[in-house]
Amino acid sequence: MACLSFYLVIGGSTPAYAMHIMEGFLPPKWAIFWWVVALPFFALGLRSLTRITRTNPELKLLLALSGAFTFVLSALKMPSVTGSCSHPTGTGLGAILFGPLAMSVLGTLVLVFQALLLAHGGLTTLGANAFSMAIVGPFTAFWIYRLVMRTNRQRLAIFLASALADLITYVVTSVQLALAFPSATGGFMASFIKFAGIFAITQVPLAISEGFLTVLVWNWLSNYGRQELEMLNRG
């Protein structure tokens, strides 16, 4: 157990190029900037969650399921190239079910627990990680889902929403890293291409896999959580 704990704290936080930006990796001004940007979404998300749980307290279990889905998927770090790592995000499901503001809270709480328990991400970089995974990702999933649902193809909408939420998360993370560490020769764009290229090798297939997995979970919910889904539709 001691060896495992040592690995989680030391080995798990080694890669600098990771979908969760590691503790202390961002310059202080950028760490503060992303905290300031993320906090209003978190506050609005708390209001959204309060409204949901007061109106339909029966949905608390489904909320917990959405948070657990995000926690498990985003904790699955997979090695990429040049010492980097990639992982699914799992935010699409909750965004489709409860909206992006609710997921801004659930996703941020997931990031807090991962930073404290798994040394995955960090507290100083929590604002940046929350903005990419818990804010931009869920908003992307929500609007893609609504757009594709105009064709009445729900499973396609769920697949695209989840996959694109995953992809946009890595794009935003690449932007954040490029802003903080512009290349000495090519500036922001050269740095962005570098970071995005590192992630893309593993993140694209991961996003596709996450899309399929989310569809499978939705099928399961359609069979065993039909009452909760109908309650959400009425809401």
Automatic annotation (TrEMBL):
<feature type="transmembrane region" description="Helical">
    <location>
        <begin position="157"/>
        <end position="180"/>
    </location>
</feature>
<keyword id="KW-0169">Cobalamin biosynthesis</keyword>
<keyword id="KW-1133">Transmembrane helix</keyword>
<dbReference type="GO" id="GO:0015087">
    <property type="term" value="F:cobalt ion transmembrane transporter activity"/>
</dbReference>
<feature type="transmembrane region" description="Helical">
    <location>
        <begin position="126"/>
        <end position="145"/>
    </location>
</feature>
<dbReference type="Pfam" id="PF01891">
    <property type="entry name" value="CbiM"/>
</dbReference>
<dbReference type="InterPro" id="IPR018024">
    <property type="entry name" value="CbiM"/>
</dbReference>
<comment type="subunit">
    <text>Forms an energy-coupling factor (ECF) transporter complex composed of an ATP-binding protein (A component, CbiO), a transmembrane protein (T component, CbiQ) and 2 possible substrate-capture proteins (S components, CbiM and CbiN) of unknown stoichimetry.</text>
</comment>
<comment type="function">
    <text>Part of the energy-coupling factor (ECF) transporter complex CbiMNOQ involved in cobalt import.</text>
</comment>
<feature type="transmembrane region" description="Helical">
    <location>
        <begin position="28"/>
        <end position="47"/>
    </location>
</feature>
<keyword id="KW-1003">Cell membrane</keyword>
<keyword id="KW-0812">Transmembrane</keyword>
<keyword id="KW-0170">Cobalt</keyword>
<dbReference type="InterPro" id="IPR002751">
    <property type="entry name" value="CbiM/NikMN"/>
</dbReference>
<comment type="pathway">
    <text>Cofactor biosynthesis; adenosylcobalamin biosynthesis.</text>
</comment>
<keyword id="KW-0813">Transport</keyword>
<dbReference type="GO" id="GO:0043190">
    <property type="term" value="C:ATP-binding cassette (ABC) transporter complex"/>
</dbReference>
<dbReference type="GO" id="GO:0009236">
    <property type="term" value="P:cobalamin biosynthetic process"/>
</dbReference>
<comment type="similarity">
    <text>Belongs to the CbiM family.</text>
</comment>
<keyword id="KW-0406">Ion transport</keyword>
<protein>
    <recommendedName>
        <fullName>Cobalt transport protein CbiM</fullName>
    </recommendedName>
</protein>
<keyword id="KW-0472">Membrane</keyword>
<feature type="transmembrane region" description="Helical">
    <location>
        <begin position="96"/>
        <end position="119"/>
    </location>
</feature>
<feature type="transmembrane region" description="Helical">
    <location>
        <begin position="192"/>
        <end position="221"/>
    </location>
</feature>
<keyword id="KW-0171">Cobalt transport</keyword>
